[in-house]
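User: Can you predict the 3D structure for this chain?
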Amino acid sequence: MANIVKTESGIDFLQRFSVRPKLIGLQVEVFGEDGPLPGDVIEINEKDTNLKTILLTQWIIKCILPATWKGVQIGGLEKVEEDSSPMSTTST
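Assistant: Here is the predicted structure, written as structure tokens:
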């Protein structure tokens, strides 16, 4: 069986990452209603590494999961995308 490698141009790569999802509602107690903005740096300063791991794991899970799945609310974030790049999203 032959391995097939898919390649993409630099422009395709940049276009793929030019639209970033907003993290509205990630954790209102920490970030407020609007959540962290794309490009924000988040510093976690805690002596207990277990607490940092739990916090980051919860954020990752919430970002990966959809808000609903097959009509059931599972607690992920709504997919709200914001175009943060002046580049065109069309490719040739």
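The first helix runs from residue 10 to 16. The CA atoms of residues 25 and 31 lie 8 Å apart.
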